[in-house]
Amino acid sequence: MNPIPYVDIHTHLFRPEKETITVQNIFPGEGFAAFSGRNFYSVGLHPWHIKTPEENNQLLVQVEEALEFDHVIFVGETGLDRRSETNFEEQKRVFEAQAFMAEEYQKPLIIHCVKAYNEVLEIHKKMEPGMTWIFHGYNGSVQMTQQLAKQNFFFSFGEFLFLPGTKAIESFRILPLNKIFFETDEYDGEVEYMYKQGARLKKIPEEEITMAVWDNFNRIENKLMSRF
Predict the structure, then answer these.
(1) Is residue 1 part of a domain?
(2) What is the pTM of this model?
(3) Which residues of this UniProt protein bind a divalent metal cation 1 (predicted)?
(4) Which helix (H) or strand (E) holds 24?
(5) Is 77 annotated as belonging to a binding site?
(6) Could you list the residue range(s) of the whole structural domain that residue 153 is in?
(7) Is 179 within 8 Å of 155 (Cβ atoms)?
(8) Are 125 and 98 a contacting pair, CB within 8 Å?
């Protein structure tokens, strides 16, 4: 048994692993279980699911209702996606609304971003948020990664770490350990595989990277330590 738990910062699957902290993504209005010890939730309106402004406002109310629960610990995933067919200006409005919720409810923000890093960075600079913003499924260039890291973003890595030649691998290698998380997203395997791959890429012991991610998680969710 690993004395330090793995953290799966973003998953779409219910994963009742006893030795892993999971943050399961749910959508507005979707039901979720009571707090069970190590299974937490995030809730957000995804850019793929943008509708009319009126419909989006109703969905945002449902997001806010879910944020009232203590075990819903992140806002998101939300974000910007230039490949999506949904209206980009409405994506930005909805994203900013959820970023404000993250501030109001004091919960970190999980970000889906495709070809819109500059726009997310611009909004971040405008808002100057106090809460942590985390790019999930990160696959940005080294140059963009360096720029974002200076603005105190965090980066969550998943299956891209197993694909040779991806930007994610080079960006992962240059990031300090205090900036990274791991996730399974829609992958049906265990997050442990991401940790092992990350340790290989960094050429460090798995225990070192496990401790670093655990420290990162507790740094952004400093109330968690008292729950175990």
Answers:
(1) no
(2) 0.94
(3) 77, 185
(4) strand 20-26
(5) yes
(6) 6-227
(7) yes
(8) no
Asked whether residue 108 is domain-assigned, the answer is yes
Q: What CATH number has the domain bearing residue 201? A: 3.20.20.140
Residues paired with residue 23 on neighbouring β-strands, in sequence order:
40
CA-closest candidate to residue 134, choices 149, 119, 116: 149
Is 183 marked as binding a ligand? no
Residues in contact with 128: Cβ distance below 8 Å, sequence separation at least 6, in sequence order: none
Question: Domain count of the chain?
Answer: 1
Per-residue pLDDT of the chain (228 residues; tens, 9 = 90+): 458 999 999 999 887 767 899 999 999 998 887 776 678 999 999 999 999 999 999 999 999 999 999 999 999 999 999 999 999 999 999 999 999 999 999 999 999 999 999 999 999 999 999 999 999 999 999 999 999 999 989 999 999 999 999 999 999 999 999 999 999 999 989 999 999 999 999 999 999 999 999 999 999 986 444 444
Long-range contacts of 32-40 (CB under 8 A, 24+ apart): 32/66, 32/69, 32/72, 34/71, 35/70, 35/71, 37/227, 38/5, 39/14, 39/15, 39/71, 40/71, 40/72, 40/73, 40/74
Residue corresponding to tokens 């980066």: 155
* 114 Cβ neighbours under 8 A, 6+ residues apart: 80, 81, 82, 83, 84
Region for residue 86 given its phi and psi (left: phi exceeds 0; alpha: psi -120 to 50; beta: otherwise): beta
